[in-house]
Amino acid sequence: MVGSGSAGGDLRTPQFNGANYDFWSEKMETILIAYDLWDAMEIGVQLQLIIEEEAGSEGEEGETKQIPVEAPTISREDKNKNAKALSLIQGALTDELFPRIRNEKTAKGAWEILRREFRGDKKVRAVKLQAIRADFEYLRMNDVESLDDYLARFFEIVNNLKSLGEDVTEKRIVQKLLMSLSRRYKSIMSIIEETRDLDTIRVEEILASVKVYDKREDLHDEKG
Question: Which end of the chain has fewer CB within 10 Å, C or N?
């Protein structure tokens, strides 16, 4: 995390080094929305006409009409929002990535540059999704792998699927988790399958049961 100044005080933004763009962009979007800066990313800096009031003709006292007196300009509010949003994006990038947007003067422009480079187009994302689907399908826990390490690997793939638009349901995660744990967890998996409704049980419930079982097995191994 890196510090970045804002009207809200000491705001900290997630650092982006080129990896996991989807996660980074989601976190940044939440921050920008929270500080009322997201419209600078969606619609960019908006032009605004300078308006001058002109007195009406004789016999129409009190009436005025508004006419533009200059070419379109940028409102001060939009300027400030753009500057704050751009500052947050710049501050979130590593020194290696900053040159990508160094010459960009708008937050929307900087955001689009990063999105095009690191998110990729539909064809690229489709290829990535196909590869990650295969990783998920063949995912299995190794016998020598710790539970924490496997769960980290498991949910990294799940999150990658979700970030690419895959609809990964709770039921699908539950089924895959029970099928992919190593033989060490065979007894607890059997108990869960026999005593719980796999259509309604939540992932958190399975994780809690498996972790308790894992600790008991560790204690048993130590005593043995």
Answer: C
Q: How far is CA 186 from the centre of its chain?
A: 35
Instruction: Give the pairing type, strands 64-68 and 51-55.
Output: antiparallel
pLDDT tens digits, residue range 131-160?
Answer: 999 999 999 999 999 999 999 999 999 988
The DSSP code sequence of 65-123 is EEEE-SS-EE-HHHHHHHHHHHHHHHHHB-TTTGGGTTT--SHHHHHHHHHHHHT--HH
- pTM exceeds 0.70: no
Residue with tokens 């399908």: 137
Q: Rounded to 5 degrees, what are φ and ψ at 39? A: -65, -25
Q: Do 25 and 98 fall within a single domain? A: yes
Q: Which of 8, 38, 17, 36 is nearest to 26 (CA)?
A: 38
3-class SS at 64? Answer: strand
Domain that holds residue 112: 15-45+75-120
Residue 54 — φ and ψ, nearest 5°?
A: -120, 135
- The answer to whether position 81 is within a domain reads yes
